[in-house]
């Protein structure tokens, strides 16, 4: 498992459960921004098509940038899950609807991402109305 987070404290929060399960040795944790790590992975073609499952719950303004990289890393038949793709319901709200400032700020990024993956012929998508929305993308080509 490759786990990435901008803040090591988030990883350490779950570390006791990971250790208790006896799987700490299976996790490669990388602290810092994900895009440089993904760029390194994508630059080495031996990593292409090697991941079965990828889950993204990060900076919404970079979801599309993540997808552009992850599509090379996920194998055909593999799944990428994106969290928060309903974004507090704002993606179906009128543009002038009242929203918290951070919701309004990221709304356009989430809308752009949702449109882009809906048009991406390399994936089949399924958006689940669980929590704040999870979109599953199965790579088909």
Give the H and E element order: EHEHEHEHEE
- Provide mean pLDDT, rounded: 96
Helical content (DSSP H or I, runs of 4+): 25-40%
CATH superfamily of the largest domain: Vaccinia Virus protein VP39
Largest sheet: 4 strands, mixed
* CATH architecture classification of the largest domain: 3-Layer(aba) Sandwich
Q: Give the neighbour order of strands across the main sheet.
A: 3-4-6-5
Question: Helix- and strand-based class?
Answer: alpha/beta
How would you describe the shape? globular
Q: Distance between termini?
A: 24 Å
% residues in beta strands: 25-35%
CATH class of the largest domain: Alpha Beta
Q: Write down the Rg.
A: 16 Å
CATH names the topology of the largest domain as Rossmann fold
Number of strands: 6
